[in-house]
Amino acid sequence: MKPARVAAARPRAARPEHPLQWLAEPLLDEPTFELKSWFGGRTLMLHGRHTLFLTTQGEPWQGVLVCTFHEHQPSLRAEFPSLQPHPILKKWLYLPESAATFETDARRLVRLVRARDPRIGIEPSARKKKKIAAARPIRFGDPL
Fold it and tell me: Whole-prediction pTM value?
């Protein structure tokens, strides 16, 4: 008989630090700040809103995505000429890591987030409820 594994006894693996996580440092003292794993990158959340998405998965997912609405894109692009609509996720703006002004623009975007600029940030969508399986008779061996 095999010994039962105790999951609680094993230490949980630490999540590796994200290469662009340095952008989150100015927000660490904000009481509502959260850094969450999201679609293979990290989302910076402030006041319950997704603000910036940090991604390093290769072009066109190599840099910072600004979570915003279409009506705010022209003013943000005027202020940050290196911002462009993301080629796949067109609802958000994209600051590629390859841009000459990446570090300064990324830091300025974080300052706007901290200042609660109304152009940056979207509410997370409501989680979908799982469909309840059609009622069927319980069979021997089914989990209870």
Answer: 0.74
What b/e sequence results for 45-59 when a residue is b if at least 16 CB atoms lie within 10 Å of its CB, and e otherwise?
Answer: bbeebbbbbbbeeee
Per-residue pLDDT at 129? 62
For residue 73, the surrounding DSSP H or E stretch is helix 73-79
**Strand ranges for 4-133 from DSSP E:** 34-38, 41-46, 49-56, 62-66, 84-85, 93-96
Does 18-114 carry CATH code 3.90.1150.200? yes
The pLDDT, as a whole number, for residue 13 is: 43
User: What's CA 94's distance to the chain center, in Å?
Assistant: 13
- Size (the chain), residues: 144
95 three-state secondary structure: strand
Closest-CA residue to 83 (of 111, 58, 104): 104
pLDDT at 66 > cutoff 90: yes
Q: In degrees to the nearest 10, what's the CA dihedral of 77, 81, 82, 88?
A: 30
Give me the residue spans of the domains in the chain: 18-114
How much is the average pLDDT of 91-103? 93
Beta carbons of 42 and 33 less than 8 angstroms apart: no
